[in-house]
Amino acid sequence: MEAMKNNRPIYISLYEKAMPDTMSLGEKGALALKCGYNGLEISVDETDARLARVLDPEVKRSVLAELRNGGIPVRTMCLSGQRRFPFGSRDQAVREKSREIICRAVDFSWEAGIRVIQIPGYDVWYEERGMDTKAYFEEELSRVIPYAASAGVILAFETMENDFMNTAAKAMEYVNSIASPYLQVYPDLGNIRNGTDDPVTDLKTAKGHIAAVHLKETVEGVFRNMEYGQGRVDFVGCMKELLSQNVGIYNCEFWYDGKTEPGEYITRNLRYIENCFRMAQEEDR
């Protein structure tokens, strides 16, 4: 997509869960492109079926073939499967599985042309947190960064729903500590809005380290299943800041509502986001 000012290129993809799971990945990608998106963000979540995309060689080959045959650009992966297998788990077997998932996701990304893997910004999700889970998180993170670097794939923290890493500023503590070009920030604007009353200032703290952005709507205490315009996220203000930082990869993260025709649903939301970008660039003149 060509942005409105100075022909600045902006890549806007669509989260695959914005369309029905009854559609194949190829069908989702084709519909996203038809409706005006630049590509698809692939999900590798907690379910065995989606984890198999990176862990099962046969499933992996099939998914890669589907993407290639459909000519579907995929530049980012949402690796939320680490919610089930987190870096900070007290169970060594879980930590080893987490490391395996990350490394196989890097392999998949290298073959698929994915530039950025969004990883969850928390030590544990289903376990009680402690100083030990934080230490495990830091240790495992430092172990996988060299593997990602060897493939030229960026791992980037999602700002999350809990206070472990719900702002870009908190993510930057780890980015600065690791100090690798292959560990960056992939902020979720909705989660940041629920984590701070000043998301624009928060985004400034990660200047030069934002690899991509999730465009998600939220209200206080609600983190998903909302359409754009139903919440309180200042997309225009955030976009203005992000464009000034030359951030170019954006992903529309919302979930299929189960009742609207998919093409109409994703087009309506894209038009909202496009208008926000226009407004942000108008204000920047």
Model description:
The protein has 285 residues and is of the alpha/beta class. It has one domain: TIM Barrel, CATH 3.20.20.150. It contains ten helices and eight strands. The protein has an eight-stranded parallel beta sheet. Helix 2 packs across helix 3 and helix 9 crosses helix 10. The longest helix is centred in the last third of the chain and has 22 residues.
**Main β sheet profile:** 8 strands, parallel
Distinct helical segment count: 10
Q: Number of DSSP strands?
A: 8
CATH fold name, please?
A: TIM Barrel
CATH architecture: Alpha-Beta Barrel
Q: Mean pLDDT, rounded to whole units?
A: 94
The count of domains is 1
Nearest-angstrom radius of gyration? 18 Å
**CATH classification, class level:** Alpha Beta
Quick synopsis:
This protein has helices at 25-34, 48-55, 57-70, 92-112, 131-151, 168-178, 189-195, 199-204, 235-244, 262-283; strands at 11-15, 39-43, 76-78, 116-120, 154-158, 183-186, 213-215, 249-252.
Using brief descriptors, characterize the structure shown.
TIM Barrel; eight-stranded parallel beta sheet; 285 residues; 46% helix
Question: What is the fold's blueprint, element by element?
Answer:
Elements: E1 11-15, H1 25-34, E2 39-43, H2 48-55, H3 57-70, E3 76-78, H4 92-112, E4 116-120, H5 131-151, E5 154-158, H6 168-178, E6 183-186, H7 189-195, H8 199-204, E7 213-215, H9 235-244, E8 249-252, H10 262-283
Parallel strand pairs: 1-2, 1-8, 2-3, 3-4, 4-5, 5-6, 7-8
Helix pairs in contact: 1-3, 2-3, 2-4, 4-5, 9-10
